[in-house]
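Chain particulars:
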Amino acid sequence: MRNPIMTDSTPWYRQPWPWLLMIPPVGAVIGGVLTIILAIESPHALVVDDYYKEGLAINQQKYRLDTARTENLGALLRSDGKHLTLKLDGDVQAGDRHLTLQFIHATRAELDRSVQMKPQGDGTYTAATPDLPPGIWYLRLKPADLNWEIGTRIQAGKRFQAHLGSDER
């Protein structure tokens, strides 16, 4: 008895195996194209251009935070949507000097803002509220001589209230 050899006469594109073998390479090509598109459209890098100077600045920032901690400095910041009001508490008062309040966006440096807080004579400071897009913001308050620094983290909104201190980072 002879056993005839059966041949499959269906074309290759009708077989499941070639298609299953093509899935990984096609997926890699699609993933590569998507990665390139994301890299081109998202140029906002979180890497600092001058990392060495930033590293040296950390030591200065620690010194300012330690000074604020020693002097028991704190502040209450309120915004009604148009005006900022700051009440400074602690052993050292800034007197009639301006204070600088920085609004630092958590991920996008081009959105950072800086405001000069003007003294009102009764221990409070005021300024206009900057336009802040929604997101997470870090606040830093410093005097003109940069002897101390206090800060906090907020979720931006039209109105907010925040306590700034040396330990709130």
Q: What stands out?
A: The longest strand covers residues 136-143. The mean pLDDT is 82. The two ends are 88 Å apart (CA to CA). The domain at 51-165 is CATH 2.60.40.10 (Immunoglobulin-like).
